[in-house]
Amino acid sequence: MNTSVLSLAGIEKVFPNGVRGLSPVDLTVEKGDFVTLIGPSGCGKSTLLKLIANLHTPSGGKMNWWGGNFGDVGRKGRRMAFVFQDATLMPWATIAKNVRLPLDLEKVDRATADKRALAALERVGLGHVTEHYPAQLSGGMKMRVSIARALVTEPDLLLMDEPFGALDEFTRNRLDEEMARLCYEDGLTTLFVTHALHEAAFLSSRVMVMAARPGRIHAQYEIDRSILRNEEFRLSDQFAGISRELAILLEDASRESMIQQEVRA
Amino acid sequence: MMSSRTFSLLAPVTLGIIILGIWEGVCRFWHIPPYLMPSPSAIWRALMLDGVALLHALLITLEITFAALIAAVVGGVLVAFLLVQSPLIERCLMPYVVIMQVTPIVAIAPLIIILIHNTPLALTACAALVAIFPVISNTLQGLRSVDPDLAAYFQMHKASRLQTLTRLRIPSALPMFMAGLRIATGLSLVGAIVAEFVAGTGGNSAGLAYQILQSGFQMDIPRMFAALFLITVAGLVLYTAAASLQRFALRHRS
Fold first, then answer.
1. Residue from the list B153, B155, B171 with its beta carbon closest to the beta carbon of A92
2. Taking CB atoms and an 8 Å cutoff, what residues of chain A touch B147?
3. A124-175 pLDDT per residue, tens
4. SS3 category, A36
5. CATH number for the domain formed by residue range(s) A1-66+183-265
6. Which residue, A13, B42, B80, B126, is most buried by CB atoms nearer than 10 A?
7. Number of structural domains, chain B?
8. How far is B219 from chain A (nearest CA, A)?
9. Whether residue B124 sits in one domain with residue B194
10. Which of B155, B157, B176 to mutate to test the interface with A (most CBs of A within 10 A)?
11. Between chain A and chain B, how many beta carbons pairs sit less than 8 Å apart?
């Protein structure tokens, strides 16, 4: 049976203070998708991601992970990893220990964990800093470590919450290219939250444009998966075209968010 | 060009030497009697003359200081762990922790000395009471200062309570705890001296505070200064040791 990685039906979130963070959302993520959530602040994109990570509980609706419930997440074939906006490393532990953390929590034996941590670090080009501490690394390198910590569990779904928002443009572009490689070459299913239009245009196979007040999905935009996501693509007319169409959708979404705000006021 | 480290050591030492020089000069020039203000050289002579007795007294005071510090750290950490377990426990206990902190030790010391017959034990209890508060409050704050995203990460990976404690909470609390320890080290010495003053213990087990009191009664002001000098040196060494320990424990974090 071919089940979706993720299926959300009518998922909503009302915060304890009565604010409607998310009005019913339907979303399906299939294996190999790179889905991006983009929208103005307050559109609930981070809330949606945290609901999927089970860090928040939805107020209503039905959510399935690989056709099952959250209790089975973490088993083989249903592994989920999360990358935060900040690298969120343990400052007291070496890079190797940081990357090994999810394996240690699962009580994977030390030798295996070390080997897999090194392999994950090598995948993000950081095999040489295993014994360093986070404070010795640049922001971009720390983010790479954070990605390695996600990859080490061999996730079947990677959730990323504005992971490169704090980085400079150059570093961000390099990391975007690495992410594209992981998804389109290694087949890593990814759900990515960003507020950067060009990042969404570069990475996604599907972009969900969200609007605010209340948070909802405003539009959906598919991008050809067969495009090679590299430096050349970034400079192409095709990329410019995708960016422009996304910009129009986003403009639309934020205008609607504003109107809603005025109606309320 | 000297390094900033050498400079930060050399500058205060130079200032100290200048002040000592002026002090000595003033005492000699105006022939100020030593029972009013002894010259540094007179203090030094008193220290040499009575050094053995004073050092012995210092050792006794330091014993109490260390015992109190250990008690404060162990007790303070235990109380902090207890308080962090549930909001109910914290709400019940915290007011009493604060009451303990705001009551001056000089006021409770006589009571403790009456209640506990063993004098060194009573002195240790007084000093520990002074030093425990920064350990409690800092450890408590430290245990709470966990990066919320990192805590969410542990939750997402279904970490057990024990794993979260040993791999996240305790290491997260360490910087705050070390700061508390540094404050507590100084306070243990202060507490030990204050308790000795109140107890006024004489005889063989007399600490430095008693030596100061006794010298005062005998108008032996140079000896008073000599004892004071030893306390200052001890305090300085303790502070430096605690600060070095703090730096060492947190060496990878900044």
1. B171
2. 88
3. 889 999 999 999 999 889 999 999 999 999 999 999 999 888 888 888 898 8
4. strand
5. 3.40.50.300
6. B126
7. 2
8. 55
9. yes
10. B157
11. 48
Residue whose tokens read 């005071």: B61
Those residues whose C-beta lies under 8 Å from the C-beta of residue B195, and which sit 6 or more positions away, are B64, B105, B109, B112, B113, B122, B123, B126, B127, B209
CATH classification at residue B190: 1.10.3720.10
B206 within domain boundaries: yes
Same domain, B133 and B61: yes
Whether residues B45 and B23 share a domain: the answer is no
Helix-strand-coil split of chain B, %, nearest 5: 85, 0, 15
- Same-domain status, B61 and B81: yes
Nearest by CB: B159 against A82, A84, A105: A105
DSSP string, A104-129: HHTT--HHHHHHHHHHHHHHTT-TT-
Terminal Cα distance for chain A, rounded? 50
B89 lies in the same domain as B17 = no
In the prediction, which pLDDT does B167 show? Answer: 95
**Are B16 and B50 in the same domain?**
no
SS3 A83: strand
Q: Are A45 and A37 in contact (CB under 8 A)?
A: yes
Q: B171, A135: Cβ pair inside 8 Å? A: no
In this complex, do B149 and A84 lie within 8 Å of one another by their Cβ atoms? yes
Task: Report the gap between the CA of A259 and the closest CA in chain B (Å).
Answer: 33
Instruction: Pick B149's closest partner by Cβ from A88, A101, A135.
Output: A88
Q: Are residue B25 and residue B128 in the same domain, yes or no?
A: no
Task: Please give the residue of chain A at the shortest CA–CA distance from B155.
Answer: A55
Could you read off the pLDDT of A15-72 as tens digits, one per residue? Answer: 888 888 888 889 999 999 999 999 888 888 888 999 999 888 899 989 999 988 888 8
Q: Residues of B near A (CB-CB distance < 8 A)?
A: 147, 149-150, 152-159, 163, 167-168, 171, 174, 252-254
Taking only the tens of pLDDT, chain B with its 254 residues reads 567 888 888 999 999 999 999 999 999 999 988 888 899 999 999 999 888 889 999 999 999 999 999 999 999 999 999 998 888 998 998 899 889 888 888 888 888 988 988 888 999 999 999 999 999 999 999 999 899 999 999 988 889 999 999 999 999 999 999 999 999 999 999 999 999 988 876 665 688 898 888 888 888 899 999 999 999 999 999 999 999 999 999 998 87
Helical segments of chain A, H only: 45-52, 95-105, 110-123, 139-151, 169-184, 197-203, 231-234, 237-264
Residue pLDDT, tens place only, A97-130: 999 999 999 999 999 999 999 999 998 889 999 9
ipTM for the complex shown: 0.84
d(CA A176, CA A234): 11
Q: Are residues B146 and B85 in the same domain?
A: yes
The residue segments making up the domain with residue B25 are 1-30
Alpha-carbon distance A95 to nearest alpha carbon in chain B (angstroms): 12
In a domain, B254, yes or no: no
